[in-house]
Amino acid sequence: MRALPCASRRAQGFERQNDDRCSGAEDIKLWPFRTQPKVEAPPAASTGGRLVYAVGDIHGRLDLLQRLLTAISADAVQTHSNERPLVVFLGDYIDRGAESRGVIDQILTLRRQGRFEVRCLKGNHEQALLQFLEDPGFGPAWVGHGGGPTLMSYGIAPPQMRSDEEGWEATRLAFRAALPPHHLAFFETLELSLVVGDYLFVHAGVRPGVPLTDQAEQDLLWIRGDFLNDPGGFEKMIVHGHTPVDRPYIGRSRIAVDTGAYATGLLSAARLVGRERDFLEARAA
Hints:
It is a single chain. This protein is α/β, with parallel strands linked by helices. Helix content is 33%, strand content 20%. It is built from nine helices and 13 strands. The strands form three sheets. The chain has a six-stranded mixed sheet. A hairpin with a 2-residue loop joins strand 12 (266-273) and strand 13.
């Protein structure tokens, strides 16, 4: 584990849905915080020689993202690679933490700098933001599960009352007007998955028994129990976020890197090159 030396806090709980197939943030409930020890997987999967960093859920923690990108940049300098290194963001850039807008600006800056190829996946929280932009009635559910700090980061205060229909419509219009065009384009063009060599990168996971090419968007963004508890293997090694663990986890068929940054002060990334697997992390001061 490659770490930046700072303190961390332990999380108390995280969101989940009762039914992995549910369609909206109104179905989110707390997910028990569970310890999952690191387990070495068979070293079969390979990136084909590409140096890849897969960053877990950021949730508005710009401070941690900046520290992690510093660690990634330093590591890339020390690692020989014939191709430009790849940074894959696994989604959930926004909500809960205070600096969602700053997180998007930082990722767009990294992309413009051109040192890394930057690929950005959609998370369920980005899906919720886009849904609110189309449906003001979704506002109370989104804000109830972390969307308030995102609105505030763009200078928009949500209504005080969940039942204030006119207030939510005014908030939706104000938010759409406050979103810079390049931020809106960022949210609207997020990818659902990415394949690199023997790895598949997704936000939440995949539906067991369904070919990877036929996966439903809702499962890629929301699935938990059916994926996490599946004893079988998949066509690729799955790298995902969405479900927090106290340390990055390697299993036989998946790698989990969401370490609950907004609550724990720990943001993690998988470091993959050829058949090697390692992790980078940034901790809150």
